[in-house]
Amino acid sequence: MEFVKPLEPILIIDDSKEIRDYLSNILVELGFEEIFESENFESAKALLIDNPPNVIFLDIELPDTDGTQILEFINDHYPSTHVIMCSGHNSLENVQNTWELGAKGFIAKPFNAKKVDTVLKRIEMIA
Fold this sequence. Notes:
By secondary structure, this protein is an alpha/beta fold. The protein is about 45% helix and about 20% strand. InterPro entries: Bact_response_regulator, CheY-like_superfamily, Sig_transdc_resp-reg_receiver.
């Protein structure tokens, strides 16, 4: 199944450059072109204003704020944006909490291309 483009632009918010690069490479391999990156919420705010993304990959644990607070902000200000939470801690509580706060997906780190592809296809079905 090929993706149609309404999932773009895509924003990756993660403090780890290695994770951002890895995820960006996976997205490019999946055929996406309009990919933006941010290492924290402050720099992500400008990207949100200039070019609101359709999908955001959001790290739960960021140095400047908690990912769940960002999720609430995005849901309040950009309700049509689909947020996929990313975390190295995929406890049931963590996953349930992000779903209850409105996340449309959850990927546990370390992730791979298949997991990213699967979550994006699921989002595309509800988009």
